[in-house]
């Protein structure tokens, strides 16, 4: 004991002496650490108290949620809580080990560090608890009962009448089933899409997760969810009689209504519909109007083009589907009247059939109008995927290139196919899909075309593979998303170029000779299968360009002779148990995607450093963070240095745990230097693509702005940083999507320099508790953030305003989304002059901002023009206890507003609408009690707005 006292006294004495010599700085640090050490017990108690609350909440939610309603949000939260259990248990053990140690000195050493760790962990636990409370509250809210009113159907106004008819039938209590029928292409699917607010399937609507293939069991699960709710079931493209009572027990649901769409009136009869709606062809006038809208009003300036359009429309037979496709095709011909005339003549020559044959003939014309074979090849390739599936753009472009269809023009071809409506975009430009009728036509063409024969059976529930004879005839095969358990042993597939077997989870073993005959195979996709190894015959695929093994979670081995794949360019092993050592001989790879876990663990990792630099041909490299490993901090600098030696690298996705690690790369990489030295602005320069995360983080922080970024964006996330780092500023100047997470030492984004942020399309600010405003325009003479499209701000506890000072003309003119969450002291959303710049704002969401009283403050916006927010489509206001006004008057024109959601805004008593100023508003989600308590200047406004309401009744 005496020895311990002497040691402690010596340490304290040394600190004091040093503090005096250093001017007191270290003394201050010592006192701060001493204060943390003194608060060790209190921080431990706080942590364990918060943790107990979180565990109890987790158990409560687990008991309240059946496995059938386990949504991705709840699953992710549960996973984060389980991770937190491990971390808190570890800190608790360290605390108790120190507390019970016989030496006082041991107990005191590093106590300040432990105390600080526990205080920080306590905040994280509390944050998870708050998120859990929101989840629990949502679970207790009953599902909204959706009252439907049709919105205006753009271009297809003749279809509006059918939607009105369907709605009137739905409002009739005696009508429970409606049948919409008509020949292909008349617009039945379009009508169905406008009968629902969201394109969700029944299971998504109910939040169910059916893992069983037992139809009777699934029927019971769905019935139990529906029996206490009013619901509308929409069934599109019904091609045979469906026994609904076997699927969801619908006959026993007295409050359930069904709308089905079919080509066959007999199906309506067989399914006992109460009323039928026949969708007829468009008249000549309606058809021409639609064509002119789709092709572009500019053609009215060319009388001969109008004459051609009239003749083309006649060939469409009044079918909206064909009119749209042809209008887009002729639009692509520009103002060349001769091309229009020639195109019309070719179309006329094709039109020799009726019904479905005529539809395919018109679509064939659209296909024939593609002006190059690569475009035609790329279009037909998409038919390998089901019309139900969304195709990932990045993989599609890679497959096109590996098949030899494209070189560097894949994006251009994809854009053209979308522009002429042969493909459809899905959401955020990351995925595309193909219309069912177009896919049928593409499969028909591929069957007739040399070297393009397709065997496509995706998403068909197959448990056994097709007959080997069918494999022999095919050039491309797609059996993805099935339930295959085995594959044929002996095949003759000498002309097979692409084989898609992904997401057959029950496929565990591939026969030894399976690949032996596939000498021409270029693309092989096995991702998401249950395979544990690959047979030696894989090494006979000497022409293979792309191999996708990602998410094969049981895969541990590759054939020894993998080096034989000399033409392999793309390899994806993310989420497998393979190691980098197993592929290090493939030095000619151009695109390599791996997970952090593929480096191995600690001692294994040490052996694998040096392997990255051996891939001298790499153009794209990606390391996905699939597990949080502290050893990555130890080797990240080495990996960064190795990456810097790759002379051909033009795309990199990587987590740099420190700014210093990032500096290693950008200082020494020649491709990066060439990219950085280019004078082109960020929004024009895509010569080097990067997705960087920089700083200490967890798995959640690592995700690269997934919710809204474009696949081509350069993105940077700076996490747990301090101050304004010069290197981050420089990288920011080349960035399109920027996330500032848990940052300290900056009061505004402006501190990173206006010039460096001018190229941003996306900006996310989260957990930055010292940010007071996003942009400080004081003293600025130029516009700022001219091309910013999305602004998301979350958990900014000191944020007082988005913009401070004058707003220069041109600033924020492309902003489409504003999302504000938990900005507790924010009082002002639109500063003086800001709202005038938001001519393209489409979505505004404000949630849990306690001090917000007005969405548009009258004092800041006294002279607004009526069309100021003419593009706004959705307005979401949640949990705003002091909100009293959206806008003080009904003077604004809400010309594009389609949807409003308002919840827990008890002080909001009026809405800024009159009878005419929100013509497209079709959905208002709110509590019925709140709606009934609203004040109206006249009853006509309430009557006008009442039908679109989707009420959530607090009484359940």
Write up what this structure looks like.
The protein is α/β, with parallel strands linked by helices. Helices cover 36% and strands 13% of the residues. The protein has a 21-stranded mixed sheet, sandwiched between helices. The chain has a 4-stranded parallel sheet with strand order 3-4-2-5. Helix 3 runs parallel beside helix 6 (111-140). The N and C termini lie far apart (67 Å).
Write the layout of secondary structure elements.
Elements: H1 2-21, H2 25-38, H3 40-64, H4 72-99, H5 104-108, H6 111-140, E1 145-146, H7 160-170, E2 177-181, H8 188-193, H9 202-206, H10 215-226, E3 231-235, H11 244-248, E4 256-262, H12 265-270, E5 275-278, H13 284-295, H14 303-315, H15 320-331, H16 337-350, H17 355-368, H18 373-381, E6 391-392, H19 393-403, H20 410-419, E7 424-426, E8 431-433, H21 436-448, E9 454-456, H22 468-473, E10 476-478, E11 498-500, E12 523-525, E13 546-548, E14 570-572, E15 591-595, H23 603-608, E16 620-624, H24 631-643, E17 651-656, H25 659-668, H26 670-677, E18 689-694, H27 699-702, E19 715-719, H28 726-732, E20 737-741, E21 762-766, E22 773-776, E23 790-794, E24 801-804, E25 817-821, E26 843-847, E27 874-878, E28 899-903, E29 923-927, H29 928-932, H30 939-945, E30 949-952
Parallel strand pairs: 2-4, 2-5, 3-4, 9-10, 10-11, 11-12, 12-13, 13-14, 14-15, 15-16, 16-17, 17-18, 18-19, 19-20, 20-21, 21-23, 22-24, 23-25, 25-26, 26-27, 27-28, 28-29, 29-30
Antiparallel strand pairs: 1-30, 6-8, 7-8
Helix pairs in contact: 1-2, 2-6, 3-4, 3-6, 4-6, 13-14, 13-15, 14-16, 15-17, 16-17, 17-21, 18-20, 24-25
């Amino acid at each position: 004991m005496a020895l311990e006292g002497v040691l402690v006294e010596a340490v304290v004495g040394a600190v004091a002496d040093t503090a005096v010599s250093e001017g007191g700085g270290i003394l201050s640090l010592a006192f701060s650490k001493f204060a943390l050490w003194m608060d060790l017990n209190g921080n431990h108690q706080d942590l364990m108290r918060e943790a107990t609350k979180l565990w109890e909440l987790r158990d409560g939610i687990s008991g309240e949620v059946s496995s059938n309603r386990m949504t991705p949000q709840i699953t992710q939260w549960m996973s984060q809580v389980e991770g937190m259990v491990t971390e808190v248990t570890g800190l608790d053990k360290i605390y108790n080990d120190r507390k019970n140690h016989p030496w006082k000195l041991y107990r005191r050493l590093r106590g300040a560090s432990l105390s600080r760790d526990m205080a920080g962990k306590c905040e994280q636990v509390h944050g998870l608890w708050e998120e859990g409370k929101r989840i629990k509250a949502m679970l207790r809210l009953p599902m909204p009962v959706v009252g439907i009113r049709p919105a205006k159907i753009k271009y297809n106004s003749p279809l509006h009448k059918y939607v009105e008819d369907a709605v009137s039938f739905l409002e009739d209590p005696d009508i429970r089933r409606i049948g919409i029928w008509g020949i292909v292409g008349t617009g039945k699917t379009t009508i169905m899409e406008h009968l629902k607010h969201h394109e969700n399937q029944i299971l998504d609507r109910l939040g169910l997760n059916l893992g069983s293939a037992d139809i009777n069991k699934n029927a019971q699960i769905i019935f139990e969810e529906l029996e206490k709710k009013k619901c509308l079931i929409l069934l599109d493209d019904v091609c045979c009689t469906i026994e609904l009572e076997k699927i969801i027990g619908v006959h026993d649901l007295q409050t359930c209504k069904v709308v089905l769409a079919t080509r066959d009136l007999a199906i309506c009869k067989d399914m006992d519909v109460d009323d039928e709606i026949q969708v007829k062809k468009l008249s000549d006038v309606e058809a021409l109007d639609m064509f002119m809208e789709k092709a572009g009003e500019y053609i009215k300036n060319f009388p001969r083009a109008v004459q051609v359009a009239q003749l083309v429309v006649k060939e469409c037979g009044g079918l909206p589907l064909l009119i749209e496709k042809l209008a887009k095709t002729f639009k692509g011909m520009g103002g060349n009247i001769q091309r229009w005339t020639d195109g019309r003549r070719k179309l006329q020559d094709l039109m020799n059939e009726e019904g479905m044959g005529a539809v395919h003939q018109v679509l064939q014309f659209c296909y024939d109008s593609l002006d190059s074979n690569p475009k035609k090849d790329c279009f037909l390739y998409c038919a390998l995927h089901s019309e139900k599936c969304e195709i990932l753009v990045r993989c599609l472009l890679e497959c096109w290139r590996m098949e030899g269809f494209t070189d560097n023009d894949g994006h251009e071809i994809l854009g053209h196919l979308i522009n002429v409506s042969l493909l459809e975009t899905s959401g955020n430009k990351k995925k595309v899909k193909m219309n069912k009728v177009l896919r049928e036509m593409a499969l028909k063409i591929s069957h007739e075309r040399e070297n393009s024969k397709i065997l496509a059976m995706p998403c068909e529930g197959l448990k056994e593979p097709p007959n080997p004879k069918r494999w022999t005839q095919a050039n491309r095969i797609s059996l993805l998303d099935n339930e295959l358990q085995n594959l044929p042993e002996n095949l003759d597939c000498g002309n097979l170029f692409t084989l898609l077997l992904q997401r057959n989870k029950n496929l565990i073993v591939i026969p030894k000779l399976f690949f032996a005959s596939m000498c021409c195979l270029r693309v092989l996709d096995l991702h998401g299968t249950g395979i544990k190894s690959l047979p030696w015959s894989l090494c006979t695929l000497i022409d293979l360009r792309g191999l996708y093994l990602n998410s094969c979670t049981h895969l541990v081995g590759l054939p020894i002779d993998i080096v034989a794949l000399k033409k392999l360019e793309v390899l994806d092993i993310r989420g497998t148990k393979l190691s980098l050592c197993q592929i290090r001989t493939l030095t000619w790879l151009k695109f390599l995607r791996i997970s952090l876990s593929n480096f191995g663990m600690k001692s294994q990792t040490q052996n694998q450093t040096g392997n990255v630099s051996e891939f001298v041909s790499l153009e794209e490299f990606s390391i996905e963070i699939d597990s949080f490993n502290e050893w990555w901090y130890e080797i990240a600098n080495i990996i960064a240095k190795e990456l810097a030696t790759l002379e051909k690298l033009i795309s990199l996705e990587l987590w740099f745990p420190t700014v210093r690690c990032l500096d290693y790369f950008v200082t020494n990489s020649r491709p990066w230097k060439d990219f950085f030295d280019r004078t082109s602005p960020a929004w024009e320069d895509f010569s080097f693509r990067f997705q960087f995360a920089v700083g200490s983080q967890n798995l959640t922080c690592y995700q690269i702005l997934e919710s809204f970024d474009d696949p081509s964006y350069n993105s940077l996330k700076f996490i747990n940083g301090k101050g304004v780092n010069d290197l981050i500023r420089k990288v920011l100047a080349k960035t399109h999507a920027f996330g500032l997470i848990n940052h300290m030492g900056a009061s505004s984004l402006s501190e990173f320099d206006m010039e460096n942020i001018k190229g941003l399309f996306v900006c996310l600010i989260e957990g930055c508790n010292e940010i007071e405003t996003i942009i400080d325009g004081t003293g600025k003479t130029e516009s700022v953030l001219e091309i910013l499209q999305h602004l998301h701000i979350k958990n900014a506890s000191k944020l007082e305003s988005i913009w401070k000072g004058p707003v220069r003309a041109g600033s924020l003119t492309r902003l489409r989304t504003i999302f504000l969450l938990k900005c507790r002291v924010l009082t002002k959303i639109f500063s003086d002059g800001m709202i005038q710049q938001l001519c393209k704002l489409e979505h505004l969401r404000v949630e849990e901002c306690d001090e917000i009283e007005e969405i548009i403050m009258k004092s800041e916006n006294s002279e607004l023009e009526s069309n100021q927010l003419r593009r706004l489509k959705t307005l979401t206001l949640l949990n705003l206890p002091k909100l009293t006004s959206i806008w003080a008057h009904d003077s604004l024109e809400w010309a594009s507003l389609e949807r409003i959601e308002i919840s827990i805004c008890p002080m909001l008593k009026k809405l800024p609408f009159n009878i005419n100023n929100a013509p497209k508003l079709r959905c208002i989600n709110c509590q019925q009690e709140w709606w009934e308590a609203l004040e109206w200047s006249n009853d006509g406004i309430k009557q006008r707005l009442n039908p679109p309401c989707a009420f959530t009744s607090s009484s359940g």
